[in-house]
Write a structure and sequence with these properties.
The protein is mostly helical and 209 residues long. The chain is built from ten helices and two strands. The protein has one domain. The protein has a two-stranded antiparallel ribbon.
Amino acid sequence: MNNRKKNLLDGVLGGNIVLSGLMVISPVIICGDNLKNAEALIYAFSAITFLSVLICSFVPKKLPYAAKVIIYAIISSLVYIPVKLAAQEFYPESIARIGMYYPLLAVNSLIVFQTEAKFFRMKRAEMAVSLIFYILGFDLVMLLTGFLRELFAYGTINSKIVDVNTLISGLSQPFGGFIFLGLMCGAYRAIRAAVSKKEAGRDTDVSDK
């Protein structure tokens, strides 16, 4: 895989913002205890982040960094309003449960920090593709976390009872979410290290030839 393609796809695996960068972890830990909450968070994070970063890319780059960060925050806050109104129609119970962590998505790390450090150094089309994969990286972690925590904490999937022999009620609590995310991070980093080692071995074989 060439470096350009790798950079575009990096957000799902190599640079996953949750498992690698440990960003936006509070909603995952506190609120990701069932699929409904996960869906509500995925919707909000995806819509707010994509629209905000896309609109922010038109902000003049000559402005001072502090001024641009303030403008980014204002833009994402304005994007948040219609997203929240729509969420209240589709996920009313989840919105009440998620509480303050929903508006915090409007100032998440991809919008505030990664815009200047990564996305705005790309051409707009490349930026959009890379941004989508970074968003997907969060979405996949959120979905997997919500699914597994609901399954083993409550014995349900999307509020429907399933046959689970052993329940771990602590997974429904923030400390359970923290431990679960830690295990996911450990597994993710082990897999990434194994893949990197395999790719390095392949490159060595090619150079020897």
